[in-house]
Structures are given as structure tokens and as C-alpha cells.
Amino acid sequence: MPRTTPAAIAPATTAAATTAPAAITPDIRLVATDMDGTLLDGEGRIPDGLWPRLELLRERGIAFAPASGRQYATLARQFARAGAEALSEMVFIAENGTYVVRDGRELSSAPLDRRTVVDVVRTARGLAAGGADLGVVVCGKRSAYIERRDDAFRSEAATYYAALETVDDVLAPVDEVLKIALYDFQSGERNTAPALRAFAESHQVVVSGQHWVDVLRKDADKGTALRALQRELGVTPAQTMAFGDYLNDLQLLDAADWSYAMAGAHPEIRRRARHEAPAHTDAGVLQVLDRVLGLEG
After folding, report:
1. Does a structural domain hold residue 141?
2. Is beta strand 164-166 parallel, antiparallel or unpaired with respect to 212-217?
3. Degrees, nearest 5: CA angle 183-112-201
4. Environment class of 162 (CB within 10 Å of its CB; exposed 0-12, middle 13-18, buried 19+)
5. Model confidence over 118-128: pLDDT tens digits?
6. What is the DSSP letter of 67?
């Protein structure tokens, strides 16, 4: 497939986007999209234009799957406006692929072993004691847990974790831990990720944003989750469309023939994707859906 640039896709608000689909509409059966920097707008909100398009996707039998580092409870809250029936048909690939839920039912999960959880948390505490400005979120199935209490960190954590508990010790709660997320107020890629290099041999250390670094199982990522979902639904990569912007989206894009890097995405994402979509601030995902699938918002 040739690489598609933003200039080749008419804005979603123009007649060209709503009346002139691609010459041959592909047989897409599954759309998976990252959230931050991809689907969400510049204010971190789901674009209003998505809601009518979700209904059109449902009418065509196309499954829609948000694929995010965000918590399942957060994603379910964000998409509540779609209504109970639509929510029951959506699939949520949460916690960077370590937790996949459909209609409130777990399809798959990939919890960390206790030893890894303890070692990563203690390493993070050591970095903070040495002067690093970072906080730790232990992400369980039931809730996420933090022990750093200042407003700046709590605000960042609350953005991504709707079910969030502040505890004295993040190692104390009894819960299955899906991943450990570390928020570096300076740069996750430059500072925290290299400091966690010792874990990279046995686990994944994923830079999931400018400030976030996640530690998860070696066999867990958005792409693995998407491939399992494809098998569950009887969908092929050729029938799958995926959108992403950052390093935790690499495997997600690899699992879809119709892979799109958002304008302004991380350079490695742009190299790996087969197509390019307009920026998330310009509703790029919606523009592509309109152009390729002939949707009308």
C-alpha cells in the first residue's frame, strides 16, 4: 500500500470527505485506535463527530476498539456517551494491551508476577530518593494505586486512572497487577526508561508518552491484544485499520494492514506505519474513516 499523507485526505467537515470515499472501499471489519495524541482532540476529549460515526460503524458490522495505556474504567467512562448497547459491542484494549474487555467480560489479561512488581517499585523509589521527579502508579485490575500525594502527580494519574486509590504503600493492596506506570516530570524516554534497562531483558519497558514509561510482561502489548481480538472476531489484518502516535503503538500498527501514523507522531511510528493521517487536533482519525470508508458524520 502506498503511504498516504494528510494532504491526500479532505477535512471531515468538507463535502469531499463525506461524499467521495476511496475508489474501492476496503473490507474493514475492525478499527483500533490509540487515544492520547491520536483519537482525542487537543483538549484531551473525544471529538463530538465520533459518536454518529460509531453508529455507522455498528450498522456496517465494523467493530471499534479503543487501544490505550489508559485503565479500563477510564475508557468505559470516556465512552459512556455512546450508550449501553454500543458499549456492549465495543472492545476495550486497556493498560497497553494487558487487559482486554468486551461487554464487561474479560477476554484476556497479562498480570505481572509479584517479584517484578516489588523490584520495579523499589527501583523507582530509589530513583526518586536520588532526586528524580517521578511518581509510580501500580495498575491493578480492580484499581490503580499511588503513594505520592502531591497535587501535580495526583492530577496526572487521575487523568488516566478513573479508579485510583492513594495508599501508604503501593505494594500493600491485594490485586492482580497489570502494569507499572511511571510518570517522569522531565522526560520518560531520556531519564526513566534508561534507568529501567535492567528489566528490559525479561519484560517490556515501553515509552508510552513524553512523560510516561510502562513496565509490563514481555508477551503483552497492544499488538498481541489486537491479534487475539482478530482471532476472536474472525478478522484478518487486511480487514483491520489501526491508528497510533507513540512507541507503545508500534505493535498495534504492525497487526493491521491499514496502519496509520498521526501527523506529528514519533519518528519510529511514522517509519513503521503504511499510511499517515492528519493530526489528532484536526480529527485525523475521523477524516480517515470518512475518506477510506465513506462515512458521513
Report:
1. yes
2. unpaired
3. 80
4. middle
5. 999 999 999 99
6. B
All 3 cell numbers of residue 277? 493521517
User: Tens of pLDDT along 126-148?
Assistant: 999 999 999 999 999 999 999 99
Global pTM reads 0.84
Would you say how long the chain is, in residues? 297
Cβ(150)–Cβ(166) under 8 Å?
Answer: no
- For the stretch 228-269, pLDDT in tens is 999 999 999 999 999 999 999 999 999 999 999 999 999 999
**Pair (128, 178) in one structural domain:** yes
Give the residue ranges of DSSP H helices in 139-221. Answer: 151-160, 193-195
Rounded Cα distance, 14 and 149, in Å:
47
User: Which residues in the chain show pLDDT less than 50?
Assistant: 1-22, 297
What pLDDT is recorded for position 23? 55
- Cβ atoms within 10 Å, residue 104: 10
Where is 261: in which H helix or E strand?
strand 258-262
Mark whether 85 and 125 lie in a shared domain: no
Distance CA 21, CA 114 (A): 50
Which residues lie below 8 Å from residue 61, measured CB to CB, with a gap of 6+? 29
Range of the domain at 277: 6-109+221-293
Query: CATH number, domain at 170?
Result: 3.30.1240.10
Domain end, chosen from 217, 249, 271, is at: 217
Number of domains making up the chain: 2
Indicate if 186 and 243 belong to the same structural domain: no
Examine residue 1 and state whether it is found in any structural domain, yes or no: no
pLDDT of residue 104: 87
